[in-house]
Amino acid sequence: HRMWQAWDMALDLCLAQLPTVLENEDRYVHSSFFEDQLTAFQVWLNLGSKNRSPPEQLPIVLQVLLSQVHRLRALELLGRFLDLGPWAVNLALSVGIFPYVLKLLQSNARELRPLLVFIWAKILAVDN
Predict the structure, then answer these.
(1) Contact 56, 94 (CB under 8 A)
(2) Whole domain around residue 39: which residue ranges?
(3) Is residue 3 situated within a structural domain?
(4) 122 Cβ partners below 8 Å, 6+ apart?
(5) Of 30, 51, 74, 85, which residue is the least packed, with the fewest Cβ within 10 Å?
(6) Using alpha carbons only, what angle is made at residue 113 by residues 109 and 116, rounded to the nearest 5 degrees?
(7) Among candidates 31, 36, 33, which has minimal Cα distance to 15?
(8) Is residue 14 situated within a structural domain?
(9) Residue 26 in domain
């Protein structure tokens, strides 16, 4: 599966630098795995066709919501995805979006509120 191949590559890159980090105290270079997956998800959104398979990256996008570094971009992309219609909301619910959004709604990050309210409204509109 392509997602496992991408994950294996990211893991290999992380492990390959371990000896030099431990021996020379070099700085660890963070993996671009999550950023790459967000970009792939964005490309999927930009394709515009309704007759396509669900995005492989959706579970990763939800996981990225836990990272402050990529959270804003992940929320923007997630909002665009949910805006595609009830099928997208149902797919997001099926991979476990609910606890992530609920947790973020309770945070003090005011800059995220408009996106979170939009996402929450999409969920409520579909999840009667």
Answers:
(1) no
(2) 31-48+55-125
(3) no
(4) 79, 82, 83, 89
(5) 51
(6) 120
(7) 31
(8) no
(9) no
Euclidean distance between CA atoms 55 and 107, whole angstroms? 28
Per the structure, how many domains does the chain have?
1
For 37, residues 6+ apart whose C-beta sits below 8 A from its C-beta are: 6, 57, 60, 61, 64
Q: How many residues does the chain have?
A: 128
Task: Pull the structure tokens for residue 91.
Answer: 């797919």
Task: Please report how the helices 113-126 and 71-82 are oriented relative to each other, as an axis angle in degrees rounded to 10.
Answer: 30
Alpha carbons 120 and 100: distance in angstroms, whole number: 11
pLDDT digit of tens for each residue in the chain (128 aa)?
Answer: 677 787 787 788 778 888 887 887 777 777 788 999 999 999 999 987 667 788 999 999 999 998 899 999 999 999 999 999 999 999 999 999 989 998 998 988 889 999 999 999 999 999 76
In single-letter form, the type of residue at position 29 comes to V
3-state SS assignment for residue 69: coil
